[in-house]
Amino acid sequence: MLVERVLVVLYLAGCVGIGIFASRKVLGSRDEYWVAGRRIGTTVNAMAIMASLASGGSIIGVMGLAYSQGIPATLALFAGAVLGFPLASILVARQLRNFGRYTITDFLAFRYPASVVRYLVPSLIVVAFTIYIVAQLKAAGITANALLGIPYDAAIIFATLVFIVYVSFGGMVAITWTDMIQGALMLIVVLGAGLAMVWRVGSPLELMRQATEAAPELGQVVHQPVASYLGYFVIWATAIPVIPHIVMRVSTAKDAKGARLSLNLAMLAYSAMILVAVLAIVPVGKLHFPGLEDADQVFLKVMESEFPTLIRGVAVAAVLAAVMSTTDALLLACSSAIAHDILGGLLGDRASDKTMALIRIGAAWVVGLLALYWALSPPELISRFYTAGIGLLSASLFVPTIAGLWWKRANLAGGVASLVVGAATYILAQFQILDLGIAPVVIALAASAIAMLVGARFGRHEFPTMLEAIRALHD
Amino acid sequence: MKGFFPMRRSEVAALLFLIAFSAFSFLPVWRRIEIGGIAVFGWLMIALMLISPVLTLFVFIRGQRRE
Fold it and tell me: How far, in Å, CA of A192 to CA of A205, rounded?
């Protein structure tokens, strides 16, 4: 375990070093802090987007899920995000990059200028992302405890302090470079391990044949009705175009072409990683370790049995990288919702650059420490809550964003109505106060779309100047 | 489609295809039929995860060449 611990400590020290190095450049500039000066190249951005999306669940969780619930169900849960990338690339990337601000709140508050939009959107983001961060911290603590033998509390306190330091001082520049390294690490470990497994057997089809013969349930749809996969699929398909930490990445690209291409390449990398994990590593785990009590151990069991110590250490670092690359992006997006969207909106030009820099740093520490406090005694169902949190963002933001960019009749009344009705319906459906027997996100998206139509029908038509401004974003 | 800002035909076609493919994949019948030990639903999800990035990249590159 010594090699693994040394590699992880070196890796965490590297993250802090990048944050401190970046801080010299970014602390005095909003553009540098929130969107890395809008000069991130396509490949780096693609890797950072992939890493931001691929959480611990995309390495440990996806393989554990495929092991316990079968390949078809697992892929259905993750394919939603893969569908979300084309939606983001085609429907929002060019326009939001051309818009030239920082956050999804900036766009919605411009398109639908009302206080409820300016303050409700960041509030929803803070709630959803704080839950998401707590879930990721819990995953980090459990992972570090299982892999490195470090006590849960010590692991999350240490990990949280590391990423608060590099996010709060290094901003988007620091998390872009750390995420790029983390993304590359994940990709190399998963693709390398998967290809090694296939190479030993001869072909992926032969590997799959052996595994499904030994464990037929691997290829079957078991346990849950399709409706439950559909909800998860729709949540991620509609979240990717509007989810704040992806939208901020779109704004870091040099231009609209770079933004779109980086989303496309990120989608390729994410897709390849999930497919190789599920189709090459899980079958080996099922063949060599049937009947694992904790299915989430399958990846580590395979790495332990098939690879030498050093590579196992790199794999442990890759798992932690997956957790941290998502958590740091969430923390930055969450602190942007507080420091830029809410406080920046309230203070306007009255605050000096120095004050705003202190607010940015303070927001990251407040959110990070709050999440840490909660993660020290997390609710049992936190990992379910975080998907619900993402669902809340999809249900409330998807319709007003897409309609605001593409539909000429979208207006202030429609935008506000679709935002509020989408959020309210999702909460009612999620807590089963409104139960129609279908996934809450599907009901909420439909309600949000109807609210947009009604608002557009009865509200005041949009000013020609607004339509001209939106048209310009499509150029 | 006068009420909407214009979108390239290839992008509209790609989006409609991917949404239709997703809806088709979730038909309950594909859960019961198996090919090579995996439910057809699983094969369709694998196909979606391969087709989606490749098709979108193709549409993007084609659009750039036209520009």
Answer: 18
Among A213, A216, A268, the residue with its CB nearest the CB of B53 is A268
| Number of neighbours of residue A366 by Cβ within 10 angstroms | 16
Mind telling me how many Å the CA of A353 is from chain B's nearest CA? 38
pTM over 0.80, yes/no: yes
Contact A221 B46 (CB under 8 A): no
pLDDT band at A372 (very low <50, low <70, confident <90, very high): very high
Cross-strand partners of A40: A253
Angle, alpha carbons B39-B44-B50 (nearest 5°):
135
Rounded to the nearest 10 degrees, what angle do helices A440-458 and A226-239 cross at? 50
User: Could you tell me which residues come within 8 angstroms of residue A134 by beta carbon, excluding any fewer than 6 positions away?
Assistant: A371, A374, A375, A378, A382, A386
Q: A79 CB near a chain B CB, below 8 Å?
A: yes
Tell me the residues of chain A between 376 and 435 that have a Cβ less than 8 Å away from chain B. 405-409
ipTM of the complex: 0.93
Q: Does residue A171 or residue A9 have the better pLDDT? A: A171
